[in-house]
Amino acid sequence: MTQVRVLAGTRKGAFVLTSDGKREKWSISGPHFGGWEIYHMKGSPADPDRLYASQNTGWFGQLIQRSNDGGATWQPVGNDFSYVGDPGTHLWYDGTPRPWEFKRIWHLEPSHTDPDTVYAGAEDAALFKSTDGGETWNELTGLRLNESAPGWAPGAGGLCVHTIILQGTRMFAAISAAGTFRSDDEGATWRPVNRGLHSEGIPDEDAEVGHCVHHVEAHPTRPDTLFMQKHWDVMRSDDGGLSWTEVSGNLPTDFGFPIGVHAHEPETVYVVPITSDSLHYPPDGSLRVWRSRAGGNEWEPLTRGLPQRDCYVNVYRDAMAVDTLDSCGVYFGTTGGQVYVSGDSGDSWAPIVRDLPAVLSVEVQVLQ
Amino acid sequence: MSAAAATPVTSVRVVLPAHLKNLARVHGEVVVPVARPVLTQRAVLDAVEERFPMLRGTIRDRKTGKRRAFIRFFACEQDLSNEPPDAPLPDAVAAAVAAGTEPFLVVGAMAGG
């Protein structure tokens, strides 16, 4: 029987939400690692029962947890994220050089083919890889040693690698607030791919790096087409990131964090507009997912089942996911602790759970 | 008899904060063997991490070995947090910890307002 498993990372622990393929009745287990921030939790496409979770607090630092049984039990694995060599400096908020310092793992991206291989995006910005199920980690230094890196400065949330896209030998990584980077050699070397981005908050608005990219997604069948939610602006690229065009169109505001792509319709895209960079809640207290079926520019609000008044939550960059069922499911979690599901591509929504801690990340697996 | 074989092994009671007890899957105090001639912070914490490898990096920074900012070390109602890690524990503390009459406490600092 088809089962759907949603992995929700929150400010105070991890939760596993399960349902059958109808996605109407849900069971909730957790909190796992209660009291710890779970920035991200994701399952291996090669072995869905292999899960990885990034666990962190200011008191006790960074841990990585691994489950081999779909989240029923967990064991801590390696947490030695050492930068190779003298890591040098990046820019601090005040423009002064600041030594690279490991703080946390924002994102875990398991390999599509090997359950023991997983990539980790770090703050301060660096990319790590494990090929032994998370027991040991090695930095892929090419990203941090990009010639532009000494000029990278953190976004408000930190200088973090928050997006990792695996496309065979090609990879993308996105960094706040440096931009998007592409590797064509499995992460050995990287180049910035931000042409077309325009950011008013930096001295050179069209600079090659320095853009606060919030999230990037690509449909598996269209590897050259990327969709980006930037600090402001929703963007798309059709040439593997070499150039970008704005597709914000009729959105009420083009500030936001997550962006999602429909599992079966590569031109159907979802965003959750947020009022502004200083007002991290939906316009008019009305929580709306906006969907474009045209790959951007033409957007429609999706409101059925979502609170349309007095709602002042945010949706973080890793807190939206889509499933692969025939009727595509869309999921997102809020800072108010709600996790919403739509089993009909966004036409209607219902809460899976309403009162979790602030949701940092949402991922979904379909188990056959 | 070799010098190493002659090194006394002291059983030290250690109290961990709740989150680290969960991580180490223990309840209550733990007792770790410290095979050093002189009790120091480092000797005790090395023994804790040897017994519970999953705690590496949670009490001390993995790279520098320094105490994490929001961790404190107490014993005999004394704050040892800012003592050099290789300094012998004060005589009265060392005696009480070695005798097992007092534990070595690893504490999550009060923070958060």
Q: How would you describe this structure to a colleague?
A:
The complex is a heterodimer of chains A (368) and B (113). Chain A is mainly β. Chain A has one helix and 30 strands. In chain A, strand 16 (179-183) and strand 17 form a beta hairpin. By secondary structure, chain B is α+β, with helices and mostly antiparallel strands. Chain B has a single domain, classed as Roll (Ubiquitin-like (UB roll)). A five-stranded mixed sheet of chain B has the order 2-1-5-3-4. Chain B is globular.
Features:
heterodimer; A: 368 residues; mainly beta; Methylamine Dehydrogenase, Chain H; 4-stranded antiparallel β-sheet; 1 helix; 40% strand; globular; B: 113 residues; alpha+beta; 5-stranded mixed β-sheet; 5 strands
Brief account:
The complex is a heterodimer of chains A (368) and B (113). Helix content of chain A is 1%, strand content 40%.
| Neighbour order of strands in the largest sheet of chain A | 3-2-1-30
Find the CATH superfamily of chain A. YVTN repeat-like/Quinoprotein amine dehydrogenase
Mean pLDDT of chain B: 93
Name the chain pair whose interface involves the most residues: A-B, 14 and 19 residues
Strand content of chain A: 35-45%
Percent of residues of chain B in helical segments?
Answer: 25-40%
- Structural class of chain B, by secondary structure, is alpha+beta
Q: Helical amount among residues of chain A, as a percent range?
A: under 10%
Indicate the overall shape of chain A: globular
Distance between the termini of chain A: 6 Å
Q: Give the biggest beta sheet of chain B.
A: 5 strands, mixed
Radius of gyration of chain A: 19 Å
CATH architecture annotation of chain B: Roll
Instruction: Provide the number of structural domains of chain B.
Output: 1
Report the β-strand fraction of chain B as a percent range: 15-25%
CATH topology value of chain A: Methylamine Dehydrogenase, Chain H
Number of strands of chain A: 30
CATH superfamily grouping of chain B = Beta-grasp domain
The end-to-end distance of chain B, rounded to whole angstroms, is 56 Å
Helices of chain A, by number, come to: 1
Average per-residue pLDDT of chain A, rounded, comes to 97
